[in-house]
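Below is one record:
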Amino acid sequence: MTTAKLFLHGVPDSPAIWGPLLAALDLGDTPVAVPALPGFTAHLPAGFPATKEAYADWAVGQAEALYAAHGPIDIVGHDWGALIAQRVAMLRPDLLRSWAISNAVIDPDYRGHRVARIWNTPILGEIFMALSKPVKLAEGLAAQGMPADIAREEAAQWANKDKRRAILKLYRSAKGLSFEHDWARDIDKLPANGTLIWGAGDPYVELSVAQRFAANTGTPLAVIDGAGHWAIAERPAEVAAALHAFWNSL
């Protein structure tokens, strides 16, 4: 029986970011779920606090639904989706066959990038959001390697005020991007069947962060040369090859 896959996107993205990789993976009849983080493509659900814990609980629910229908799943995450996927693996290893993450990792020593620190700062974060226009966002994402058509689609969603609000709440719940005092303390709870896939030129979470995590935990690391933060969309064939090699090794 084929193993169901759950793909979790990051910030400021949507499920659209997975398009190139899904095409390259050519998963055929494999059950695949590519949900949008609550508030990212629609209004925030009533009462949803948009904290990292809330998103982790939501992702556990997504994994539980796939598990109920298909048995243990493969979870794949990028950026914040990577952090959430790791948290799901820590909390509910019984739901998973494997976990694979790209260009973000729960690391006790990582202190976040410049934009994360801005979003974590009250008032400054709100000003940044108010001044961030979709056209400029699309240009900026494309300049950093995201395919232009996906960059335009992602930027168009920036008009959703709930999305901008959710991002601020999420980053502030994580003190920018600091996991030293909570999630990072549970790294030893991660199941063994995991892998890292990293764009070598990531300016937000440098390759050295992945290398440190891999060395400390024994987790395999596949480095994608010629790619940055969005390696999953910049070099989908290479990422797909790395994922298939990992899954075939299980």
About this structure: Residues 5-111+181-248 form a domain with the Rossmann fold fold (CATH 3.40.50.1820). Residues 6 and 75 are 5 Å apart (CA to CA).
